[in-house]
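Below is how a single chain appears once it has passed through the pipeline. First comes the sequence as given, then the structure the pipeline wrote out for it. We keep one example in the README because the format questions we get most often are answered faster by looking than by reading.
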Amino acid sequence: MKRLLKNCRIFNKEGGEFTGGILIDGGVIMEIAENIEDSGAEIMDIQNNYALPGLIDMHCGVCEPGFESKEDILSLSEAAARGGYTSVCGLPDTDPAADNKTVVDYITNRGREVSKVNIFPLGCMTKGCKGEEIAEIGEMKKAGALAVSDGDKSLQDADLMRNILLYSRMFDIPVVAYCEDANLSRNGVMNMGDMSVLLGLRGIPREAEEVMAARNILLARYTGARLHIPLVSAKGTVELIRAAKSMGLRLSCDTAPRYFTLTEEKTAEYNTLAKTKPPLRTRDDADAIIKGLADGTIDAIVSGHSPETYESKQAEFDRASYGFSAIETAFSLCYTALVVTKAMPFADLIKRMSETPARLLGMEEKGVLRPGADADLFIVDAGAPYVINARNFLSKAKYSPYDGREVSGQVLMTIVGGEVIYESYSNRA
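Resulting structure:
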């Protein structure tokens, strides 16, 4: 059916904005202009709020198959829609792991059956994400995997990493390689620094991330492969990537809101809700992340959604699980921390969360608002602030270190393929 969104605030190609309409038909954007009339379309009054291309999450724990008690595809999709996400790339460390065509097909088909948003699987770099043997990368790409990764497991074997990068070139597929040197991290549970000393907990030094990032960058340089470094958290990693990009490498990276909106101080009093991988770092690191986002060193922002059961978080800090629910709060946190503070123009933030992830993953008709593109978009009220209430999350993981924080940039509506899949207010004329 046809839908006409009227009174939308829309960004133009130059980053400016105008007020106009968006005509959608058959899941595709047909027209964007200041004045559109179509008597056969359902009229939706957007009430002078922003209409933006749907967010695309490159790094998200889907948990199905195998870990449905933490999250499943349906609950994830509902949470994603509430957060303004229209496409989600699921990490492959499921059970069974997405290291073959069968599991990739299952995730894709299951997404089509029950998900409200687009679900795109990532395939494993190594069989079972065990870091021992290369997975069937070509087979998984044919089945629809957009990139290969071992999730939040860092591949320690440099020779195997080199061979994966060489093999990936045959398929021109990105290798998403989490960076942590196990010999340096040595079972640490939080950032190594004053706070870890105060709490008496084993620390993970920044060097654990930086050394592994440097190794992978060098291997990418020698192989010419497409390397993507996820969840950048350390100042030194930003500096390494900035230098590497000046050499013209096929290199990209992302970070998550927690690495520029929180610091290790959040772990005070053994707050396990703030236990995550990589760990929360210092204010100096967070400032470097913001600078890297502003100057384009960091290409994309992901949610870093890593749901765990609440019970697994209510344990001694050493034993508590890593991660927390993040996909419903990511956009608002980014908008508040980067746009409201004028660290980054609004249009640039949207590129980091929509257009750039789509480009990196080869999704040509997503992440943009233009005629002919998929009608995946969301509506945002950039005005009045609201308070995050984790108990109302649609995710199964109803907890957050941001619970009670006031933020701006509330998602009012999410549209996928021209269909309204989430709506928090009435806007039909």
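The first strand starts at residue 3 and ends at 11.

See the next section for the split statistics.
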